[in-house]
């Protein structure tokens, strides 16, 4: 008989009072805090609140960068830390801007500039397919880390529409919807976003009551 596949080790459960969101991006911190709110458990503080340094993102994937940021914040703060690495992947641009999504906005991370660059590089192509990807990593001060990845697919629109989101939200229209992420109410976006998908996996593995 063939050997049985090894079972995946059980995820570590979160049982601390404070969780650091390892980001200095106010929009991202707000969105993660909104997703955490229904758990009613951890006190959420951001890396900006604690004046933690931003580590250089040297990874070549969303997962690598999320884990790097989570570990750095956990070790610096002494608390478990949750880090997100996310970005826009455009099919006609061979996945760009990808992990460089923020950097396409220049040194000031100007997403109006970044969105204009995406539209300019697409030119007259009819292929406007794109997806957002999010890697979420929860790290403990001892170096242990749990990581989950989510995606959401849609099309890019131009000109940008809406003012309720952040980043590339004004040009991303998810499949099955007539509004961009930036036109949607936050609760509607949170229910379907790439970050929400990764977060559901995280909650099931690390926050939901053990069965």
UniProtKB/TrEMBL annotation:
EC number: 3.6.1.66
Catalytic center residues: 85
Superkingdom classification of source: Bacteria
Cofactor(s), by name: Mg(2+)
Gene Ontology CC entries for this record: cytosol
Gene Ontology molecular function, alphabetical: dITP diphosphatase activity; ITP diphosphatase activity; metal ion binding; nucleotide binding; ribonucleoside triphosphate phosphatase activity; XTP diphosphatase activity
Keywords for this protein: Hydrolase, Magnesium, Metal-binding, Nucleotide metabolism, Nucleotide-binding
Record GO biological process: nucleotide metabolic process; purine nucleoside triphosphate catabolic process
Annotated positions binding substrate: 23-28, 86, 166-169, 189, 194-195
SUPFAM superfamilies: ITPase-like
Cofactor comment: Binds 1 Mg(2+) ion per subunit.
Reactions catalysed, as given in the entry: XTP + H2O = XMP + diphosphate + H(+); ITP + H2O = IMP + diphosphate + H(+); dITP + H2O = dIMP + diphosphate + H(+)
Pfam annotation, one family: Ham1p_like
Residues annotated to bind Mg(2+): 56, 85
Subunit field text: Homodimer.
Family: Belongs to the HAM1 NTPase family.
Function: Pyrophosphatase that catalyzes the hydrolysis of nucleoside triphosphates to their monophosphate derivatives, with a high preference for the non-canonical purine nucleotides XTP (xanthosine triphosphate), dITP (deoxyinosine triphosphate) and ITP. Seems to function as a house-cleaning enzyme that removes non-canonical purine nucleotides from the nucleotide pool, thus preventing their incorporation into DNA/RNA and avoiding chromosomal lesions.
Name of the protein: dITP/XTP pyrophosphatase
Organism: Roseospira marina
């Amino acid at each position: 008989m063939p050997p049985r596949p090894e079972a995946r080790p059980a995820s570590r459960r979160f049982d601390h009072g404070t969780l650091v969101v390892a980001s200095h991006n106010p929009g991202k911190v707000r969105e993660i805090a909104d997703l955490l709110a229904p758990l009613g458990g951890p006190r959420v503080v951001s890396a900006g609140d604690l004046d933690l340094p931003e580590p250089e993102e040297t990874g070549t994937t969303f997962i690598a960068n999320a884990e790097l940021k989570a570990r750095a914040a956990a070790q610096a703060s002494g608390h478990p830390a949750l880090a997100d690495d996310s970005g826009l992947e455009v099919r006609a641009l061979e996945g760009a801007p990808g992990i460089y999504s923020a950097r396409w906005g220049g040194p000031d991370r100007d997403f109006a500039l970044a969105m204009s660059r995406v539209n300019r590089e697409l030119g007259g192509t009819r292929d406007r397919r794109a997806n957002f990807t999010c890697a979420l990593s929860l790290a403990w001060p001892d170096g242990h880390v749990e990581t989950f990845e989510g995606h959401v697919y849609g099309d890019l629109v131009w000109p940008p529409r809406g003012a309720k989101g952040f980043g590339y939200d004004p040009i991303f229209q998810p499949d099955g919807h007539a509004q961009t992420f930036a036109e949607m109410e936050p609760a509607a976006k949170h229910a379907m976003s790439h970050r929400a998908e990764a977060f559901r996996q995280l909650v099931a593995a690390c926050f939901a009551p053990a069965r």
